[in-house]
Design brief:
486 residues, alpha/beta, Nucleotidyltransferase, domain 5, seven-stranded mixed β-sheet, 18 helices, 22 strands, globular, Autoinducer 2 kinase LsrK
């Protein structure tokens, strides 16, 4: 019998990607379309534009943004605009943080963050109580899109389920054998638990795509399976499949993940349940968006030009840039960014000053990522001998010269394994395992993933950062204490 084709969808904030893979990982077809605005209608239009010719039958799933909430009525129609992961409700978050819910301690800093779903949901309920009464389901974009493909427009949405990676930030306990909701949390908030779907493993079968959206986009007939967050899909695409794997995905943010066999709490880490097996302690912090904003609004140049200016600056001559600590390496909304070592020097041209600023920012990103390599090694008593990396949206020089990863490998003093960005392949890995297309996760990774290059450290570059690495986090702590005193 002919093997089924795999259809992966990545619903991102900037665009929608749809890829079709054979079981040996060949990309048979693919498409991308921009997301014009953050509405469910714009998502549907982008999916329609992005979808290539799809197989009549196949296996499909979706990955999308973590922490975005879609509040819909009984037919899946939005009651409110999507509450995006970058939207914030600090007043409600502050009230949540004052609650005494010790059973949430492992991920409380995530569930009660100002940008997490619960504070924004509570804000909507307080500001629009009558409108909120019409909400039937509160879903992630992943779950919403899968069931939008599944159901006809006139069919009430019943028996909705979601995957455990998307459930996390809505208030799920991922430490139990089968993750479930923190019932005490919803009771305390007087928030009906019935608004939230049952939690299932990623890759669980949903049904066959049979709605109008499926017909318009070519998904009709595709078997749909529970998806996952795009961060977790990227972990799989990065090859993070077995205990000890350490990966960083750089796109809008730096998503740092380590594969562990058990839970070992740490205030700078939050825990996902691994989509396949084990756990994913890690962090996510704004880097890519900050970099693009800095190049555009401060240096008034393209990312490619900004990276070129940074590349021209000798090692150790960039200004010291410390990223915002509201998410990492500290969970403190009051800690902003800092810039040190800015000298008044008329001998430097405008381009040289811009280069030093860009170099400092890029180095700051790499050093902040390094703090997690160091933290994980110490906390889990392990050695990370290589770092799996996906640069999803990182500007490159001359089309293929990866100066960025060379600098990373040199500062981190270990090889960087650059993987091909295949978030859509990560989205279909769990369904492919559950349907026995692959016998185990290693075989799935071997077939579906692609390694681009292995970049070795440059000792001559790394030597410039031996001292700086040791002082970077100490200085960050001093900066954080200064803001806390203010």
């Amino acid at each position: 019998m002919e093997s089924p084709q795999l259809v992966g969808v990545h619903l991102g904030t900037a665009s929608v990607h749809v890829d079709v893979y054979s079981t040996d990982g060949e990309r048979l077809a693919g498409g991308e379309a921009p997301v014009a605005e953050q509405t469910t209608l714009a998502w549907e239009r982008a999916l329609h534009e992005a979808a290539p010719a799809l197989p009549q039958t196949g296996i499909g799933s979706v990955a999308s943004t973590s922490g975005t909430a879609v509040l819909v009525d009984k037919y899946g129609e939005p009651v409110f605009p999507p509450q995006m992961y970058f939207d914030s409700a600090p007043e409600q978050a502050s009230k949540l943080q004052d609650l005494d819910l010790s059973d949430l301690s492992i991920n409380q800093n995530i569930a009660f963050s100002p940008t997490s779903p619960l504070p924004k949901i509570l804000k909507l309920r307080a500001e629009y109580p009558d409108k909120f009464q019409t909400v039937e389901w509160i879903l992630s974009p992943t779950t919403w899109l899968l069931y939008r493909l599944r159901f006809d427009a006139s069919t009430p949405w019943r028996d909705i389920e979601t995957d455990w990676t998307n459930a996390l930030k809505f208030g799920a306990d991922v430490t139990t054998p089968l993750p479930t909701w923190f019932e005490s949390l919803f009771e305390t908030l007087d928030l009906p638990r019935s608004l939230f779907p049952a939690i299932r493993p990623p890759g669980s079968f949903i049904g066959v795509a049979d709605g109008q959206l499926a017909e318009r986009t070519g998904f009709d007939g595709i078997k749909l399976f529970q998806g996952l967050t795009d961060g977790n899909a990227s972990v799989l695409a990065n090859g993070g499949v077995k205990p000890g794997d350490f990966s960083i995905t750089f796109g809008a943010s730096s998503v740092v993940k380590y594969v562990s066999e058990s839970v070992s709490p740490h205030p700078a880490l939050y825990y996902h349940r691994h989509p396949i097996d084990g756990y994913l302690p890690g962090a996510s912090f704004d880097t890519g968006n900050l970099l693009r904003w800095f190049f555009d609004r401060v240096l008034n140049c393209t990312p490619e030009r900004g990276l070129e200016l940074a590349r021209q600056v000798p090692s150790g001559h960039g200004y010291e840039v410390f990223l915002k600590g509201n998410r990492s390496p500290f969970f403190d909304a009051d800690v902003a960014g800092s810039l040190l070592g800015l000298n008044y020097d008329n001998s430097l041209s405008t381009e040289e000053v811009h280069g030093r600023l860009a170099r400092g920012l890029i180095t700051g990103i790499i050093l902040t990522e390094w703090t997690y390599i160091s933290l994980v090694e110490e906390h889990f008593d392990t050695d990370i001998d290589r770092v799996l990396v996906i640069n999803d949206g990182t500007p490159t020089l001359d089309g293929n010269y990866d100066w960025w990863n060379t600098l990373r490998a040199s500062i981190w003093d270990r090889p960087v394994v650059e993987m091909e960005p295949r978030t859509t392949a990560g989205a279909v890995m769990a369904p492919a395992l559950i349907t026995s297309i692959y016998s185990d996760v290693e075989t799935a990774a071997e077939n579906l993933l692609r390694e681009r290059d292995v970049i070795e450290p440059d000792p001559s570059v790394g030597a410039d950062f031996d001292t700086q690495k040791e002082t970077y986090f100490d200085r960050w702590r001093d900066i954080a204490e200064f803001y806390q005193r203010e």
